[in-house]
Amino acid sequence: MEFSTSQYDLISGDQGVRKLVDRFYDLMDEREDVKVLRDLHAKSLRISRDKLYMFLSGWLGGPQLYVEKYGHPRLRARHLPFKITNEERDQWMSCMNQALEEQIEDQLLLSTLKQSLFKVADFMRNAEDAS
Ligand code: HEM
């Protein structure tokens, strides 16, 4: 018997992941204070939306959509073409934290997700801040 509930289920599954990712990229597109982050991305965010949605589906314990389509994520390697310092990481987290706060009421789930996504984002850093 299965008693554990995945984070995927707790954020309402496929629909919840889609909603989170859409809000995240809408914020990235709209917020004046994250222009550095936005400018790293392609003009259209459609492919980014699909890929992050597929990745987070598996990462949260749901269907491994990204792995099935693209293979191992190799996330750090895939981010190497983009300069990621504390500034880019913090802008990414700021949009993600806002999207999470707007959607998730359960405070324990909210802080757990913020912390574990911060670890992934911090791991993407590949350059020092400008002095
Ligand atoms: C730390 C700050 C981060 C920055 C600045 C960043 C930036 C980017 C950029 C510029 C792209 C290329 C997409 C495009 O051109 O539209 C990308 C792709 C992607 N990012 Fe990030 N990212 C960050 C963190 C993360 C984190 C924390 C995750 C996962 C939780 C993530 C997941 C992905 C995925 C799955 C892709 C698609 C990879 C592929 O298949 O090409 N990113 N990211």
Automatic annotation (TrEMBL):
> Which Gene3D superfamilies does the entry link to?
Globins (1.10.490.10)
Q: Which SUPFAM superfamilies match?
A: Globin-like
Family to which the UniProt record says this protein belongs:
Belongs to the truncated hemoglobin family. Group II subfamily.
Keywords in UniProt for this one? Heme, Iron, Metal-binding, Transport
Q: Is Metal-binding found in the keyword set?
A: yes
- Its protein name is Hemoglobin-like protein HbO
As cofactor, the record names: heme
Which Gene Ontology MF annotations are present? heme binding; metal ion binding; oxygen binding; oxygen carrier activity
